[in-house]
């Protein structure tokens, strides 16, 4: 029986449908996120190596013009053109209803770069002046500026990653030409990333190098925000944020998290690598179901009985009594994907979030590449 094949042509056909015709009806609720949809479409065609051959120069210029049409006069980009009521009607009183937002600005800049634009029409100075206004006192970033300049939107690592990316693209390593524009508070941003883990009472007693360990939760991953569960998407955003920031200098403490050999790095990589799983959506664990059914027929021991049993046995005896679990290996599995959290099923998007985060850490293949390739082909057949 032939193995699964990744159907590249069908992917290209789907992306071109989204790019050149109407979007599928499932995307109606995402109309205000067209900048993100454009990024996924253009990025997909670019990764597959067909963006130039499947579009004409005139079409690409049209896409560039649409992106600039979404640029807000005061700096940044809106998520779609539906809120644009014209520059001549824009005032200080109503601008909050047609705001630039952080993710859309990042995606717009990347879209322009994918299309080969030189960013000459980007309001660079205005955008860099707008960006620090989105940063909260705790170092995190919001999504938009509301009435009276209030910071609106969530407070998590996704916006931190987008803000760091905007800063890097427009300010660069030296900030040439915008040296007089106030920068974001980099140290506070790093502190927020550090706090995205289980609380540590000793954080205030540590210097920058040691404190950076506490940007991770107890298992090595990164949470959405402080006191949240580790998640692959947010771990990627944390790694991406620090990667953007460290392009400026190697002296910032973020380099420790991304330095091979450090405890922070090893914990991060270990958590990412352990996200690989052969548990796929739709599979049924019949043995597990039968085992649960059998256990339901047995009378559960009382707490007192368990305490007596464990008190009469040594720790070594208890350890020896544990069931043996053979580790997964290339010989025992034929297909492996990635999950985003512990004990979850494999999901397509996490192949990117985990894989990309690992590639930022180092370009060495950690995952079972053959099994993962089979998984990617399997989910690519629709």
TrEMBL record:
SUPFAM superfamilies assigned to the protein according to its UniProt record, in alphabetical order: Terpenoid cyclases/Protein prenyltransferases
Start and end residues of each Prenyltransferase alpha-alpha toroid domain: 6-197, 216-361
Pfam families for the chain: Prenyltrans
Annotated stretches, region: Disordered: 281-311
Keywords: Metal-binding, Prenyltransferase, Repeat, Transferase, Zinc
GO cellular component annotations of the record: CAAX-protein geranylgeranyltransferase complex
Biased composition (Acidic residues): 283-302
Gene3D superfamilies: 1.50.10.20
Source organism superkingdom: Eukaryota
Co-factor requirement: Zn(2+)
Single GO MF descriptor: CAAX-protein geranylgeranyltransferase activity
Entry-linked InterPro entries: PGGT1B-like, Prenyltrans, Terpenoid_cyclase/PrenylTrfase
Assigned protein family: Belongs to the protein prenyltransferase subunit beta family.
Protein name: Geranylgeranyl transferase type-1 subunit beta
Organism per entry: Penicillium subrubescens
Species lineage: Eukaryota, Fungi, Dikarya, Ascomycota, Pezizomycotina
